[in-house]
Specification:
2 copies of one chain form a homodimer. With 205 residues, the first copy, chain A, is an all-alpha fold. Chain A is built from 10 helices and no strands.
Chain lengths: 205, 205
């Protein structure tokens, strides 16, 4: 279920890495919620006690492995956004909106769904929460940079309200919208909304 | 961890209800991710086989119980919003924004965190996904009604863009924002953004 690095990353002789690779396999097969420590141990050819020695408990193992996945997803998101923006000489707001994920393909975006699962686990797993906070803070300057690129290349007459990136895009995953079927926001409506939103200007309210 | 109805809802003689109540207790104690069917069976004074007879499997049990919780949270949200709006004679956009949850208290809002966990589980549990879709669709007209109330009572000179409700509010939970600490959107910034966003007007783009 994920596009994460597979077992080939594991050094056979390195037990923690073997456990991580086995946990990733378990997540891929059974989902985050389905991960079983006994199965992870068996696949990694070690005992449950050895897993707990390295990762404290099930939460510690999940925190380690899911932080790694979250870092990959987050890095992939920002780097592909910056690459797409860097390829544009003059950026109009419709250009910008054209690189956003659309509501119609949310359920096909495994990264987005996995990201929402990892964030949900972090609401109850404090070690994971701290790991994700470190990643989110370390990647934050890259989002500021992406906004700076947009402003620097903005087509004449356009305006760009970067608050839409930080308030809306980074906190939204549209899965709820996908539940609404014909009542949900469709791609055209989403596109039109985002164009208007990016063109807002902060008022002195 | 939840404010859901407790075991008192269970009729002692009704096995499915006793299982549901036990599962809710397990979720309250160990989180959705921590639910163990063996523990649920023991507390409900039945066998795991009996649970599977009524709910098919662990996913079926989760789908049943989490749909119930989601329905409560969703109903509570919309009904308290409508009650707050109905108490206002003339609605300005700052009034409206004053009833929104703010970023600073996201991690204290158990309903919001639980909602995000339930939505995340639904990305991999298809029975639950279908249950949530039914609930989301059944409550959708109430959100339209809330928007109608706002428009009917809008203070002179104000404008209200209801797309903000459907595109932003219903799909956002701000947990990611809470990870960013001092880089995150603060309450004043969030309030200012929402005021501007609600005052947008759909353009013909």
């Amino acid at each position: 279920m994920t596009t994460a690095p597979s077992t080939e990353n594991a050094t056979p002789g390195n037990l923690p890495d073997r456990i991580r690779a086995s946990a990733l396999d378990d997540i891929r097969l059974y989902g985050i919620l389905g991960l079983r420590v006994t199965r992870v141990a068996k696949r990694a050819n070690c005992s449950v006690t050895q897993i707990y020695r390295h990762f404290d408990d099930r939460d510690g193992l999940l925190a380690d492995v899911l932080s790694g996945l979250f870092r990959e997803i987050t890095t992939r998101n920002i780097e592909s956004s910056i690459a797409a923006l860097s390829a544009m000489d003059s950026i109009t707001i419709p250009d910008l909106v054209s690189i956003l994920p659309m509501p119609s393909n949310i359920t096909k975006r495994e990264d987005t769904l996995l990201r929402s699962q990892i964030l949900a686990v972090a609401t109850v797993n404090h070690t994971l929460r701290d790991g994700l906070a470190d990643i989110a803070k370390s990647v934050w300057p890259r989002w500021v940079e992406a906004c700076d690129i947009i402003e620097a290349r903005l087509a004449p007459g356009e305006s760009f309200d970067r608050r839409v990136v930080f308030v809306v895009l980074l906190n939204s995953n549209l899965f709820y919208n996908s539940l609404l079927d014909e009542h949900g926001i469709n791609d055209d409506e989403y596109r039109a909304f985002m164009i208007d939103a990016f063109r807002m200007k902060p008022s002195a309210n």
